[in-house]
């Protein structure tokens, strides 16, 4: 019988719940849900700077067809509602070039065509990847486990980072043991360095949101509780395809799915998250510096391969997708290292 490795750590009732009321959906896009939960306060006084500066809202990093060089770009989502699927399906995608970095970039009028989509963050810009375990109520119910009182933290090294198609999920030779698994996750990117961040200031430290897949080796994870080892291999943290600027979407009311070889295997909503984005950032910064560029993977909903009957294992050549409402689809093939 499957026994979740957090079971022995969690025995008390939840002390924190997220009660934020999500805003109404605005500006629907052509994605597999009827509407996108855009934040109506995005164009409020609080976000006036986004209206008066050429600041990106949907950032990609890519190689351009025109010059073969790496660029940052801002994608028009009214033209390309799902950049990841468009690129995967061979649809030409253009973007307005961003001058600067992901943290200070300004959108120009120059338009280039995407030849290859890259991870939206270069590895050099990411100091660490912090991850939460058991952060969805429906996943806790599936695992028959108590709701945790505080976020459960583990880390991945930045070398685990990879991007969307044509980048691949890499299963190293050391763990080709029939237990490789997927975890669809809303992923936060930190915009500026902070420590002991109060919850009411936490969103000021968020650059934006993207889709992520916390690829895991369950045998290594469960046998010896080696979370960072079993989840930290090179290529085990694909993210993308875009980073959506904080304030554009409500991160607490987004559909989230994992799709394995065309079959939807996870299907939930981020409103099921136990700990809000604000609480997570505040907690992770207690006595610890959160550096700009830190990536935070916020946990996964029910339906992971290890808990399904029959179990699902990522095999060489398998197709894996993570879809998040308003962000798009992270597409990867699985590759077994030779």
Automatic annotation (TrEMBL):
Entries under InterPro entries matching the protein: Fumarylacetoacetase-like_C (IPR011234), Fumarylacetoacetase_C_sf (IPR036663)
Source species, domain of life: Eukaryota
Pfam families noted in UniProt: FAA_hydrolase (PF01557)
A biological-process GO annotation: oxaloacetate metabolic process
A GO MF term: metal ion binding
Gene3D superfamilies listed in its UniProt record: Fumarylacetoacetase-like, C-terminal domain
Keyword line: Metal-binding
Residue ranges of domain Fumarylacetoacetase-like C-terminal in the record: 129-334
Recorded family membership: Belongs to the FAH family.
Name of this protein: Fumarylacetoacetase-like C-terminal domain-containing protein
Organism of origin: Orbilia blumenaviensis
């Amino acid at each position: 019988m499957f026994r979740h490795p957090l079971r022995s750590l969690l025995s008390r009732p939840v002390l924190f719940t997220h009660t934020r009321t999500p805003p109404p959906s605005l500006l629907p896009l052509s994605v597999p849900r009827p509407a996108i939960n855009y934040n109506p306060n995005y164009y409020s006084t609080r976000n006036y700077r986004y209206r008066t500066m050429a600041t990106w809202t949907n950032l990609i990093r890519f190689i351009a067809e025109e010059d073969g060089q790496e660029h940052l770009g801002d994608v028009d989502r009214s033209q390309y509602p799902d950049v990841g699927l468009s690129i995967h399906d061979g649809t030409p995608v253009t973007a307005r070039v961003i001058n600067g970095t992901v943290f200070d970039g300004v959108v120009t009028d120059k338009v280039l065509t995407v030849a290859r989509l890259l991870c939206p963050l270069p590895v050099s810009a990411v100091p660490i990847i912090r991850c939460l375990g058991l952060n969805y109520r429906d996943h806790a119910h599936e695992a028959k486990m108590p709701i945790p009182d505080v976020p459960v933290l583990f880390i991945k090294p930045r070398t685990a980072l990879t991007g969307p198609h044509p980048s691949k999920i890499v299963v190293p030779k050391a763990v080709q043991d029939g237990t490789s698994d997927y975890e669809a996750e809303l992923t936060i990117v930190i915009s500026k360095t902070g420590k002991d961040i109060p919850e009411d200031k936490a969103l000021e430290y968020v650059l934006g949101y993207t889709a992520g897949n916390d690829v895991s080796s369950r045998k290594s994870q469960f046998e010896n509780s080696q979370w960072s080892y079993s989840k930290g291999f090179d290529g085990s943290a694909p993210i993308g395809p875009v980073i959506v600027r904080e304030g554009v979407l409500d991160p607490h009311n987004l559909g989230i799915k994992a799709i394995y070889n065309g079959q939807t295997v996870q299907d939930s909503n981020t409103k099921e998250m136990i700990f809000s984005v604000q609480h997570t950032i505040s907690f992770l910064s207690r006595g610890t510096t959160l550096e700009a560029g830190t990536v935070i993977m916020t946990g996964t909903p029910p339906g992971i391969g290890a808990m399904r009957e029959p179990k699902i294992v990522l095999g060489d050549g398998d197709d894996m997708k993570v879809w998040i409402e308003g962000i798009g689809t992270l597409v990867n093939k699985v590759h077994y290292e030779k």
